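Lab notebook page, bench 4
Experiment: in silico fold of construct C2
Operator: M.H.
Input chain length: 154 residues
Purpose: comparison with the prior construct
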Amino acid sequence: MNAPSAGPMLRALPAAHRQRLMRIADEVSFPQGARLFEEDRTADRFWVIRTGTVDLDMRVPGRRAAVIETLGMNELVGWSWLFAPHTWHLGAEATSPVRAYEFDAARARELCREDPVFGLAVAEWIGGILAHRLRAARSRLLDLYAPHGGVGFL
């Protein structure tokens, strides 16, 4: 079977590494309302969204899950698979029908161990995404909680 072609999200990886990762990709779909994963469960896969949207959420005792971020086309869903203990820090739910590339985490980690240069490229790719999301979360928190015209706290 031919590997699916990579979208813009994976173009942050060098071409040879991108092609290697795409060889283990499967094309999957989720209906609206499907849970992709639950907080504190084993992080055994990750996705790059082709179409649709996914909410990342956090359990709040006595309340509905709080939406932390909404991800869309060409965005990575799931990074906890890369870091021990390989458990999800958040939950995820499809908020519209979703088509995505799905990657088996164990296979991806094995590829990283087999080729340290590939592993470093994947770690830098995921790290860049995490850094971007942390900056975005900081901005959202400042918008919500900083006094008007005040100085940031993060």
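Observations: The CA atoms of residues 32 and 143 lie 30 Å apart. The beta strands are 25-30, 35-37, 45-51, 54-58, 66-71, 76-77, 91-94, 98-104.
Next step: discuss at group meeting.
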